[in-house]
């Protein structure tokens, strides 16, 4: 037969789509084998083996043997990895039929057809995307043992505990890293503050030194300016001290003359006021006599 073998998923003539294994003259009908083959078509070899292991049909044991043979051929002949293979194609062809007869009534016989088939399984490598998906699914489900059987509940529990511990350790490491980063930031902030304070202190010291220098310069200038004034003030004080006794003598002489003048004016006033006083006293006596006379006349009446 020329041309591509479409049942083997080969769409180009002469092209080989994968690694295959065939079991010929299997004593079962092709229709019974096709029911089982439909269950594993397109599955990865591990899942296909699990399906065949738990399929309640007699032909499933023969199909499982053919699948294991195809995987062995891929590993040994084509250097493939068993975990990266999947069932790309599987089919069952009819084989020779053994005709047998069963005696029946009235000398007749009925035919018995003992059929056979040829079972073919082809495996090939999966794409990288599908391999990544299957690997992630297996890790999430707890993985499996090296012999292709699922782990026990105790092993799965241990795996879950280990994963949780690893996650907790990763979280603690992340927290420690965050704390270390915070400590580094605090140290850098403290160093920056110390640098700023030292810079401010240096600026303050420089400002104070400049102010002190300017104050000293101003004091020196003022002392130079005040020196002639102080000399003049001392000369004025000396002249004032020499002139003070003379002025005091003159003031005392003036005061004594003023006192003599005041005494003379007081004596003159006394002399001028003495006749007026005598006249006042005489008038007072006359008035008292007149009052006495009036009092006597009234008594006589």
List strands and helices in order, with pairings.
Elements: E1 19-26, H1 30-40, H2 45-53, H3 59-77, E2 85-94, E3 98-103, E4 109-114, E5 117-125, H4 128-141, H5 153-300
Antiparallel strand pairs: 1-5, 2-5, 3-4
What do these coordinates show?
The chain is of the alpha+beta class. The protein contains five helices and five strands. The strands form two sheets. A three-stranded antiparallel sheet has the order 1-5-2. Strands 3-4 form a two-stranded antiparallel ribbon. A hairpin with a 5-residue loop joins strand 3 and strand 4 (about 110-115). Helix 2 packs antiparallel against helix 3 (about 60-75). Mean pLDDT is about 80; it is low at about 275.
Count of β-strands: 5
Strand order of the largest sheet: 1-5-2
Under CATH, the homologous superfamily of the domain at 6-151 reads Ribosomal protein L22/L17
Distance between the termini: 204 Å
CATH architecture of the domain at 6-151: Alpha-Beta Complex
| Tally of separate helices | 5
**Percent range of helical residues:** 55-70%
From the spread of the alpha carbons, the general shape counts as rod-shaped
Q: Which class do the helix and strand fractions yield?
A: alpha+beta
- Rg, nearest Å: 72 Å
Stretches where pLDDT is under 50 for at least 5 consecutive residues are: 273-277
- Under CATH at level 1, the class of the domain at 6-151 stands as Alpha Beta
Strand content: 5-15%
Instruction: Characterize the main sheet.
Output: 3 strands, antiparallel
Give the H and E element order: EHHHEEEEHH
Q: What's the CATH topology label of the domain at 6-151? A: Ribosomal Protein L22, Chain A
The mean pLDDT is: 78
